[in-house]
């Protein structure tokens, strides 16, 4: 009996080995992977840094193994553009991840996690149409953002130059812009419901990050400690979902097709008018789409601003130049996008922050819908794709000494913004590129300029320089740090 068991086990190992060798031949080459864990042990050192080492060894297209799942990593601007842009119809789906399935309930519905389909295209189009209709990325939204920026200035002033963590006030301000567009209302920074919501959102991001192992090994859900993490993700997700359902319901009850108030009303109008695709979809579609906008809308912009301020306190000469430019071009005027051309160094500083610390280093995972050839490598249909945006932004060919914070990289010899920057795609590219790129650019410019116009940011007396290594979560963010906002006179 024992002998038979040993033989069976040996046969299983041989079978798995042969299967693995065959499977590996179907994908571009990459680092040696271990059985069961694949390359996860190496990736724990920080995937963007490990990818940089492997790019040198295996080239711009290589395969890593996330446990038993192969993932093809695309590096460098030519590769990423060729795949996501030129072959956008093949490289624009999303994988079916265990945690997404558990939290989103109806796979295929909504925007950010939906596979490439007619329904996703239509839902994205409707969201974009109504975001634009309410001024996203346009002059008409400026007063809303400026109002949020002024409230933020007041919150910072109330700190009276004492050290504080910027995370919560920045997230509330950025989130409020999205709430105005999507829900038709904003919240005070001390509104209980809003603060609760933001707390759930940040718990959702944290728990989601700590439960990622489930996407690789769903079987771990039977291990009590992992199960508890999964339950935390699902609980937070359900609470956010209930909030969105409640707001959509309020909108349904007061809906007037002649008075469209926000993006939710925009979706209801499409349904009301019998939009051929949307009206056939379950309620989950609008719930997920609205949830996507809400979740994507706060941490992204707020984290970019945190990175920017972190680098400014470490580079006080850059901070002074930004302030000098703002003082000369704006004097005491309220910041406006119309004046962006007069503030090239300020805009270049924002871009440099986006380059040096990309908040989505491997974008959101993509999946191929058909087989394709990229740089001579055959990539099968249904392959998990990681577009390595970090590799573009840290490519020494385009950005010499890439770890040096230097906004002048984005300026020409006359100190103006250089047109058509190469190897820079913080919002990704192709059919899946960020839906709200224009809105985010407005947010970043107006918040950043308003803050630097009114404050000098410094590290607390005697504090060590903040860590620039960052932590992975929903986005790649700085480790918590405190800062002093000293009012400028
Ligand atoms: C600095 C701010 C932001 C950055 C750097 C950023 C970056 C990105 C990136 C890299 C992606 C993935 C694209 C891909 O899969 O190839 C993405 C997707 C997305 N972003 Fe943003 N984003 C920002 C702000 C926002 C805001 C404010 C919103 C909403 C109001 C938003 C909504 C979305 C949505 C809905 C998607 C999914 C698009 C789809 O799957 O079709 N983003 N963003």
UniProtKB/TrEMBL annotation:
GO terms for biological process: organic acid metabolic process; xenobiotic metabolic process. Coiled coil: none annotated. It is found in: Membrane. It comes from the Eukaryota. PROSITE patterns: CYTOCHROME_P450. GO terms for cellular component: cytoplasm; membrane. Pfam families: p450 (PF00067). InterPro entries: Cyt_P450 (IPR001128), Cyt_P450_CS (IPR017972), Cyt_P450_E_grp-I (IPR002401), Cyt_P450_E_grp-I_CYP2D-like (IPR008069), Cyt_P450_sf (IPR036396), Cytochrome_P450_fam2 (IPR050182). Gene3D superfamilies: Cytochrome P450 (1.10.630.10). GO terms for molecular function: heme binding; iron ion binding; oxidoreductase activity, acting on paired donors, with incorporation or reduction of molecular oxygen, reduced flavin or flavoprotein as one donor, and incorporation of one atom of oxygen; steroid hydroxylase activity. The keyword Metal-binding applies. Heme binds at residue 434. Its cofactor is heme. Keywords: Heme, Iron, Membrane, Metal-binding, Monooxygenase, Oxidoreductase. Its main location: membrane. The keyword Transit peptide does not apply. PANTHER family: CYTOCHROME P450 2D6-LIKE, CYTOCHROME P450 508A4-RELATED. Belongs to the cytochrome P450 family. This is Cytochrome P450 2D15-like. It comes from Branchiostoma belcheri (Amphioxus). The lineage of its organism: Eukaryota, Metazoa, Chordata, Cephalochordata, Leptocardii.
């Amino acid at each position: 009996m024992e002998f038979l068991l040993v033989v069976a086990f040996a046969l299983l190992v041989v079978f798995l080995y042969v299967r693995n060798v065959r499977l590996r031949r179907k994908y571009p080459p990459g680092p040696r992977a271990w059985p069961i864990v694949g390359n996860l042990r190496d990736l724990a050192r920080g995937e963007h840094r490990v990818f940089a080492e492997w790019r040198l060894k295996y080239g711009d297209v290589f395969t890593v193994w996330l446990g038993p799942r192969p993932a093809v990593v695309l590096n460098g601007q030519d590769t990423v553009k060729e795949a996501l842009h030129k072959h956008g119809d093949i490289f624009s789906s999303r994988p079916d991840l265990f945690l997404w399935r558990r939290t989103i309930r109806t796979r295929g519905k909504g925007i950010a996690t939906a596979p490439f389909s007619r329904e996703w295209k239509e839902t994205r189009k409707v969201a974009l149409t109504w975001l634009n209709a309410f001024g996203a990325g346009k002059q008409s939204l400026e007063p809303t953002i400026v109002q949020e920026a002024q409230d933020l200035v007041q919150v910072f002033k109330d700190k009276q130059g004492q050290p504080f963590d910027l995370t919560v006030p920045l997230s509330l301000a950025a989130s409020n812009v999205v709430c105005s567009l999507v829900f038709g209302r904003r919240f005070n920074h001390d509104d209980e419901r809003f603060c609760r919501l933001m707390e759930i959102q940040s718990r959702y991001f944290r728990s989601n990050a700590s439960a990622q192992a489930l996407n690789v090994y769903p079987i771990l859900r039977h291990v009590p400690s992992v199960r508890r993490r999964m339950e935390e993700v699902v609980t937070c997700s359900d609470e956010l979902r209930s909030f969105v359902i409640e707001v959509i319901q309020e909108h349904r009850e007061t809906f007037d097709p002649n008075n469209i108030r926000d993006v939710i009303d925009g979706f209801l109008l499409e349904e009301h008018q019998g939009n051929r695709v949307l009206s056939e979809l379950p309620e989950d579609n609008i719930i997920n789409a609205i949830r996507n906008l809400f979740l994507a809308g706060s941490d992204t912009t707020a984290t970019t601003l945190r990175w920017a301020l972190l680098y400014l306190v470490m580079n006080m000469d850059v901070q002074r130049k930004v302030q000098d430019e703002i003082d000369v071009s704006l004097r005491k005027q309220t910041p406006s996008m119309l004046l962006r051309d007069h503030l090239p160094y300020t805009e270049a500083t924002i871009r440099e922050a986006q380059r040096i610390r990309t908040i989505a280093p491997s974008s959101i995972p993509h999946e191929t819908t058909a087989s394709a050839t990229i740089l001579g490598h055959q990539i099968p249909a249904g392959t998990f794709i990681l577009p390595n945006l970090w590799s573009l932004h840290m490519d020494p060919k385009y950005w010499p000494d890439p770890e040096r914070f230097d906004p002048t990289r984005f300026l020409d010899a006359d100190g103006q913004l250089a047109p058509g920057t190469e190897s820079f795609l913080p919002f990704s590219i192709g059919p899946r590129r960020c839906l709200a790129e224009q809105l985010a650019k407005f947010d970043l410019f107006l918040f950043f300029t308003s803050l630097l116009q009114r404050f000098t940011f410094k590290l607390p007396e005697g504090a060590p320089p903040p860590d620039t290594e960052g932590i992975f979560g929903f986005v790649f963010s700085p480790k918590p740090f405190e800062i002093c906002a000293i009012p400028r006179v």
